[in-house]
Amino acid sequence: FGVLCSKLSGVVFSKCKCCFPANMGKLQSKFRKRSDLYRASQGEKADNAFDSQVVQYEPAHQGSINTVTNLSPDLCVSGGSDQAVVVYDWKQGRMCQSFQGHNREVTKVVCYPGSTWIFSASRDKMVLMWDLNQGDEPIQEYCGHELVVNGLAVSPDGRKLCTGSRDNWMCLWDIESAKCEHRRNISRNLVTHVCWVPGSSSVVQTSEDKMIRVWDSRSWQVTNTFPAKQYIQTHCDVSSNGNYLVSSSNGFGGQGCEATLWDLRQPGCKVVEYRGHQQTTACCMFLPSLPDGTALVATSSHDSTIRIWDQNTAVCLATLPLEGAGPLVSLSPIDCTNLLCASFSYGLHHIQLGGADSLEIKLVARF
């Protein structure tokens, strides 16, 4: 990584030593995010170290942020309680575009790599498609879910869109025509996240029923089901080579709260667990490897910390606490040294990874 810019030397960092009918069944949601519990009071200025030591840019949103992803090396896309889908230049600290089309909070955003396409899901049960180069109106709508849409993934060839909802439905859409080509309802499958396996026809999804399912997008059948975890599975990510899956767990007081590495080549094979968070682990992501080849996993939690782990040994290499930020609900790796994080209380955070002898993570900007 090299040594970080001396201008950032005062920034705080920490190292760690170590239109379908719903079929809901009787399962009641235990994974309900309550934005109002974590927002700072209007006009209140946080009095803590990181608030005074980071660069403060123009805020991307008014209110809590639920999701962030990267559109290009310079641009990120986010969505939150203000119902907006925002494109932001995180390097320059300025807003580029704010799309208004949803009438309830935005739950997920995804982009198709190498394009200007943006897809957004919402509690209004809708999925909208936007193009950064085609004005401020959605260019396509995907309608049919009966409850909040939490899962959103684009196929590697950019032709299909997968959506998953708390209504138990998993749907596969043709992106261009917005036609729903396949749909399937599984009782108690309250979808929390969806991701496409790179270079594959497989889709992975997590659920409030504590299960992880692998779907074949050609037949729209479940091909593998992983052993049920003890707690709700909140998020998942697949490694760039398609060999590994990481999932994260709900929990409290250090019970649950883990992330788990699975080998997709051996269905149901648990490799390691990453334990250390004290509240729900809301997001888990694979990061680019270190120069020495060390594979990394990042997690963010409702305990207001980000942790970086050695993927294979499950050793925690670094921890960054963001006191007062509330739940840290979404991560977006940009490259091997830059990571974005969405929070309930203090917007988006730019995190920088570096260090000469050991891995260090620093908060350098907020917007």
From TrEMBL:
UniProt WD repeat ranges: 99-140, 142-183, 191-225, 274-319
UniProt KW Repeat keyword: yes
Alphabetical list of InterPro entries matching this protein: WD40/YVTN_repeat-like_dom_sf, WD40_PAC1, WD40_repeat_CS, WD40_repeat_dom_sf, WD40_rpt, WDR31
Gene3D superfamilies in the record: YVTN repeat-like/Quinoprotein amine dehydrogenase
SUPFAM superfamilies cross-referenced by the UniProt entry: WD40 repeat-like
Tree of life domain: Eukaryota
Family matches, as SMART domains: WD40
Alphabetical UniProt keywords: Repeat, WD repeat
Protein name (Swiss-Prot/TrEMBL): WD repeat domain 31
